[in-house]
Specification:
The protein has 465 residues and is an alpha/beta fold. 29% of the residues lie in helices and 18% in strands. The chain is built from 13 helices and 21 strands. The protein has helices spanning 18-24, 30-38, 52-61, 65-68, 97-103, 146-154, 171-195, 207-215, 234-250, 276-282, 335-351, 367-370, 441-448, and strands at residues 7-13, 40-45, 74-76, 84-86, 108-111, 124-127, 141-142, 200-205, 257-262, 266-269, 272-275, 310-313, 318-322, 363-365, 381-384, 390-393, 402-403, 413-416, 418-424, 431-432, 436-437. The longest helix has 25 residues, at 171-195.
């Protein structure tokens, strides 16, 4: 068991891709490389699906998405056809690290961790996440007067929870905003590391995710839309900049501090989108009263629910829903038909290839087989297209199943299943370790701080075991 650890700092880099940090750009990242050389590092299996919401809350609670009842950024609120609602902090019913540590009398500082808006009471300080509508008009800190401290450090209303629009063709503007956001978050963190009492400190930087989605095609020759030019090194240069900020933050830490640098999932190029509702229409599972003249979200179209068996929602993965008798208002799939229909859908979706028919390796899961529990309202099927090289497109109106423009704006990248993990501190053995699971982070932090690990946590401590 590592000794002499009194504090734990987690630096979360949303979407940081392990292969870029551990190999491709390691020579450009001296501070991260030093943490690797001095401690343990490996890849970390993310949640299924590997999405910011719920992944960070899963990491902090050591509970899977089903147990949290949060199956993505958007979830069904009831069994009507009214679409999905955003998962905010109010959806998280399980205690997260700062809740557990607070009950043990420990002080936590939490900055920008996804799933923290609206803010909740914490023993210490909390600054909410990218879901905050507008920090200038929203209560985004706990305690409330903390915003005055932030204004004093950064300037009035200068703290940024996110960039204004990362799915835009104005690339220079989004690049500038990403740097501004990142610099301000680390400036605040560096100030509070020195001036506030804390046992556990965590910040999550969203800029890595945003820069992947906006700029991946410019550096990756395997990208379908590869476009070398002025932005070829945009992602690498940003990683280098973040590495510098990490070095400055770590330099301010007391000696007996363990440092974790983690991501919630990785990133990879995107080859295209599967218009899943178009496919369902072609296969006869989904029936519209009228096909749209141009692409439109399914929620805005007239669906003939008396003839529809299946529909889906798009995103990084496809949530597939079955119109069940006795569950949905106009359900037509009988209980006897339900499992055979799921079997049929799994077989057909996994066989669906790219635009040439070539296999892409799609995987379809029954939620009850991949989660310990299925709380709230899970999808009937969880569909990961093409090993995440393909995303799900929920809109209808393409007259095609395979599309190459995202229905929510320009997007160069998808998420990857492997996240990044590194841990450095007094007594931590150095070297690469076997891959771990995202749910192992919270038990590891508790172990480092000498706290008991709740029996219902699904992960395990990766040090001192």
């Amino acid at each position: 068991m590592p000794g002499n650890i009194e504090k734990v700092l987690i630096i979360g880099l949303d979407c940081a891709e392990p292969s870029l940090v551990f190999a491709k750009w390691r020579a450009h990242l001296p501070n991260l490389a030093r943490l690797m050389e001095q401690g343990a590092w490996t890849t970390m299996n993310s949640t299924t699906p590997p999405i910011t919401v719920p992944a960070w809350s899963c990491m902090m609670s050591s509970k899977d998405p089903g147990t949290l009842g949060i199956y993505g950024f958007r979830n069904r609120k009831d069994f009507t056809y009214a679409g999905l609602t955003f998962a905010t902090s109010t959806a998280v019913k399980e205690p997260r690290l700062w809740d557990i540590l607070g009950k043990a009398g420990k002080q936590s500082i939490v900055i920008g961790v996804p799933g923290t808006f609206p803010v909740t009471p914490v023993r210490g300080a909390m600054v909410s996440c990218f879901l905050t509508p507008d920090p200038a008009t929203s209560q985004y800190t706990f305690p409330a007067n903390l915003r005055d401290e932030i204004d004093a450090v950064l300037g009035k209303n200068q703290y940024m929870v996110d960039v204004s629009d990362y799915r835009t063709e104005n690339k220079q503007a989004v690049l500038d905003e990403i740097y501004q956001m990142t610099d301000r978050r680390f400036q605040l963190a560096k100030h509070w590391v020195k001036t506030k009492p804390w046992d556990f400190f965590m910040l999550v930087e969203m800029g890595v995710d945003r820069i992947h989605h906006a700029f991946w095609r410019y550096f990756d020759p395997e990208h379908r839309k590869y476009e070398p030019g002025p932005f070829t090194n945009a992602i690498r240069d940003y990683y280098t900049h973040v590495d510098k900020l990490i070095g400055e933050l770590v330099a301010e830490l007391p000696a007996k501090t363990a440092v974790l640098v983690v991501s919630d999932h990785g990133g990879k190029r995107i080859d295209g989108g599967i218009a899943v509702n178009e496919w369902l229409i072609r296969e006869g599972y989904l029936v519209l009263s009228e096909y749209p003249k141009s692409p439109a979200p399914l929620a805005k179209l007239k669906v003939d629910w008396t003839k529809t068996k299946v529909w889906s929602e798009g995103g990084y993965y496809a949530r597939v829903f079955i119109n069940r008798q006795g569950r949905e208002p106009q359900g037509i799939v009988s209980p006897a038909e339900y499992e055979p229909l799921r079997d049929e859908l799994i077989r057909k979706l996994e066989a669906l290839g790219d635009e040439t028919g070539k296999a892409i390796g799609t995987k379809v899961f029954r939620p009850e087989q991949i989660y310990k529990k299925c709380n709230a309202i899970p999808p009937d099927l969880v569909t990961i297209f093409g090993n995440l090289y393909w995303r799900s497109i929920g809109s209808v109106g393409y007259n095609a199943v395979h599309v190459f423009e995202n229905d929510t704006g320009p997007d160069d990248a998808n998420h990857a299943q492997d996240a990044m993990f590194m841990l450095s501190g007094p007594g931590i053995p150095a070297g690469q370790i076997a891959p771990i699971d995202l749910l192992d982070v919270a038990p590891t932090v508790l172990k480092l701080l000498g706290q008991p690990i709740p029996a219902d946590m699904q992960g395990r401590a990766v040090v001192g075991v």
